Amino acid sequence: MKKYRPWAIRALFILLMPFLMNYVYTKFWYEDDLRKNEDLLHLVNSLPQETEIVYLGESSNITPNKKDTNWSSISTFLAGYYPSLYVYDITKPAAHAGVYKELLKRIPPSSPVKTVVLTLNLRSFGAGWIYSDLETSLQKSMVLLRYRPPLFNRFLLAFKAYDHASKEDRRKQCLEAWEQDPLHFPYAFPHKNVREWDNHISSKGMYGADGTRDQKLTETACHFVKNYAFCIDTLRNPRIRDVDEIVELARRRGWNLVLNLMAENTERAAQLAGEDLVYLMEENRKLLVSYYERKGVPVVDNLHRVPDSCFSDRDWPTEHYTEQGRRIIARNVAETLRVFHPAGFVLYEKGGGRTRFFNNCEWPIGWDNMESLRREKAFRGKWSSRAGGEDPFSITFSYRPQDIPAYARSYCSVELEWLSAETQSPARLILELEGGTAPYTRTDVPLAAMQHESADWNHFRHEFTLPAGFPLARTLKVYVHNPSEEPVFIDDIRISFR
Amino acid sequence: MLFNSIEFILFLPPVILFYYLLPAGYRWVLLLAASYFFYMSWRAEYGLLLLFSTLVDYFAALRMDRLPTRRARLPYLLISLVMNLGLLFLFKYFDFAAGSANSLFWKLGLDTRMPLLQLLLPVGISFYTFQTLSYSIDVYRGEQKAERHAGYFALYVSYFPQLVAGPIERFSSLNPQLRQAHRFEYANFARGIRLILFGLFIKMVVADNLSVYVDQVYKNPDAYGRADILTAWFFYSFQIYADFYGYSTVAVGSALLMGVKLMDNFRTPYLSRNIAEFWQRWHISLSTWFRDYLYYPMGGNRVDKLRWMLNIMTVFVVSGVWHGANWTFVIWGFLYGFLYIAEKQVNGLLKIDTNYRSFSLTHVFLVLKTSLLVTLIWVFFRSQSLGDALHMLQLPFRSGVVATEQLHIPLFVWIFLLFFILSDIYLYSRRLDLRMDKWPLVLRWSVYSVLCFVIIVFSGLEDFPFIYFQF
């Protein structure tokens, strides 16, 4: 028996240690790792529980033009069409269907989400995006997201078990695709592939009005060709596989799925590279629309819907739109969503926007004074905002009043959970209007005004009446101020305008 | 394929399994295929270079073996040297030489420019070139019979555990072991696993975490204060040690799983009392290579003093150039040569007795002195240019400059660094795998578990390849 003892000890270690290590890691380090190495999960976790419509987008959703009077995102404009529904977004610049797929899997089955709007960016189906050097960091971010024991995910991350090609390798893959992927035209076209077409443009050059070679314009034309000259192969394209998986996931989860095929600058594409390039863009559009509509998924076809004047970037093909462009996309999406939410739709032309805001204090995004987030206490999740002591201010909601739709400018309702050890905490909820041409206004209400229990979480709700001229102010701020040394913890803050 | 990659973790177990399942006579086929797969997974076309070097030396050695005198063998040795060093020059030094020539032409006002090839350096080319050259030279000297079995010879050149970053093994040591019919031995297996775990720990946890802060400072040194610059010097000294020692330890451990004992490449070099001892403990396989194939043939120390000094300087400067095509490496080698000679002279003049007890006060003082010198010299190794290195060395002594950035180093980085330093003291002139044999079973397995946990949870997550891969 003694002979087998060492083997029994070894077996015990082999069997028990993985579980023990996973437990210790999950308990003490997993969350820190998520914060440091994973910048996607918080996007899902910070969705309010009551979210009904999720808009998934990349930078097209949020990139404003400096000249815009309203910097609201597409999803914010969209929310303005459905004021009775909870519309929130998950926005990750450079993301694509492969990333959205992992994010959607993390939405809890119990969530009331009814509809998912998925941004489809035509360029994301091309080699330039598939083999982009941003892909490595996106792939790395997704490792910790996967539903597996956290220690196993950390192991995969440590041993680079993800697509971690170097910049040079990505470039090589991209060049190979541009050389090998054929371009299909129903007529004779002089260039076999992107490489040839690109070389042709760069050697021939683009010429300005004065007849001299315009290098910048030449480069832009080459970029357009490299970004749009491809033919989607539904059997081989990894993005198609990703979207297919999302369609399947939506079906399983009972979500209405809407694909939002973004507008591209076809006018400029035609000017720079000719109608041949637009032909390819249209063919890809047709393929995507028919492919997914056959699967029963509505596709918002925005390809030609935004004019050249509504694109922000001039030297690079992007889906960054001016306010007008973002409004056009939002309107098209809103119209399509009417099929699923006929009662919620409200038509507006100007001054629309988001009326509901939420922060669960779990992730340092979006609001001001995020340094106040602490792990000491939490109503839900693990973090809350601490006001008092060294820093008397909680996290701060800060918004441009003119971005609040005209029909929601009478009242501002604030709901939050709060905790204090003091029986009569001096903490106050403050609504502040500052800057612009409106007079400085500060309205406050003590948190302790409502019946509460010390050392336990209390629900607080207050509705501020907004002064008549408030849209003239530059910023509207909502926060808690606590002059006491005894801290107050704030969590799950909901702000809505009506 | 990197040792710290999932690919290697998936690659090694089946190789080991099939190694022991196959009859001994066929194992070379498996190992050769595995070695080429290992190498070509990085860039398939460069497998041809490896094959080319192998074929050149295989046939050159066969010819030399048949010839009775060194004089008769010399042409074949020259073929081997020209072919191997020619390839090395083409891939590693051509652009450096052409660039230096172009600067010279420019300074002389000549309108001549040599083209740059901008070839991607094949991983491990310096290592396998030196390994295969040692074989050719040994056969030329008549100290080694030529290997007639092409497969075993190809395996000697490409044996995957030590292919891309050493240790640079001699044919007489490695080939008999590759031919031996090893039986599975649990003790060897356990020692191999121990070394792999410890190697991964010092590479992934110590080196990779230090490199984050070293890179930060070296990227923009002017933004950092005195303390951070000194920290970066100190960290780099340990980063490169942990990085290369880690690689070598995994290599030795991997080979040991197959019963093959590779030479130790490091023996606690930072506990050396002088530069001479440092080079007996640092990258031992390269130092001994230079000793046997360059220093001794030049006369070693059996020459007059001036010639001896020249020999030493030559060896160190060539060693610097071996590391890379940059003037920083030349200066790095030169400084070691200079210090080596200076220390020998001072010791000789002052008649300093170098026999003292380990970890006595004198020993500790000398260790600190040597470590400080080595740390300073590493600045040349890490910098991109001579100008950068000199700037980096001046920075701690400047005054009146306000730092705009500050290093924020988590406690765990210091803890693991301290642990690494303590482990070096514990292992002074000993090997971890053998020391652990004496530990109780539960302690050993607890250490394995902790190492696994720490490797998984605390490894650096940026993509830091092994520093010595570039050589």
Account of the 3D structure:
The complex is a heterodimer of chains A (498) and B (471). Chain A has 498 residues and is α/β, with parallel strands linked by helices. Chain A is built from 16 helices and 15 strands. Chain A has helices at residues 5-28, 30-37, 41-45, 59-62, 74-81, 97-105, 127-130, 135-143, 150-158, 167-180, 194-204, 215-228, 238-253, 266-273, 275-294, 323-337, and strands at residues 53-57, 87-91, 115-120, 256-261, 299-301, 356-359, 373-374, 384-387, 397-399, 411-420, 428-434, 441-446, 458-465, 475-481, 488-497. With 471 residues, chain B is mainly α. Chain B folds into two domains: 6-184, no CATH class; 206-273 and 354-470, no CATH class. The model of chain B has no long low-confidence stretch (mean pLDDT 89). Chains A and B meet through helix 1 and helix 9 of A and helix 18 of B.
Set down the secondary structure blueprint.
The complex is a heterodimer of chains A (498) and B (471).
Chain A: H1 5-28, H2 30-37, H3 41-45, E1 53-57, H4 59-62, H5 74-81, E2 87-91, H6 97-105, E3 115-120, H7 127-130, H8 135-143, H9 150-158, H10 167-180, H11 194-204, H12 215-228, H13 238-253, E4 256-261, H14 266-273, H15 275-294, E5 299-301, H16 323-337, E6 356-359, E7 373-374, E8 384-387, E9 397-399, E10 411-420, E11 428-434, E12 441-446, E13 458-465, E14 475-481, E15 488-497
Parallel strand pairs in A: 1-2, 1-3, 3-4, 4-5
Antiparallel strand pairs in A: 6-15, 7-8, 8-15, 9-14, 10-13, 10-15, 11-12, 11-14
Helix pairs in contact in A: 5-16, 6-13, 11-12, 14-15
Chain B: H1 6-21, H2 27-40, H3 47-66, H4 70-107, H5 125-141, H6 150-158, H7 171-179, H8 186-219, H9 226-257, H10 275-281, H11 284-295, H12 305-323, H13 327-350, H14 361-382, H15 386-394, H16 411-426, H17 432-436, H18 441-458
Helix content of chain A: 25-40%
Quickly give the structural class of chain B: mainly alpha
**Integer-rounded radius of gyration of chain B:** 23 Å
Span of the ends, CA to CA of chain A: 78 Å
CATH class call of the largest domain in chain A: Alpha Beta
Morphology of chain B: globular
What proportion strand of chain A? 15-25%
Number of β-strand runs of chain A:
15
Low-confidence stretches of chain A: none
What best-fitting shape of chain A do the alpha-carbon axes yield? globular
Query: How many structural units, i.e. domains of chain B?
Result: 2
Q: Largest sheet of chain B, described in full?
A: none
Question: How many discrete domains of chain A?
Answer: 2
SSE class of chain A:
alpha/beta
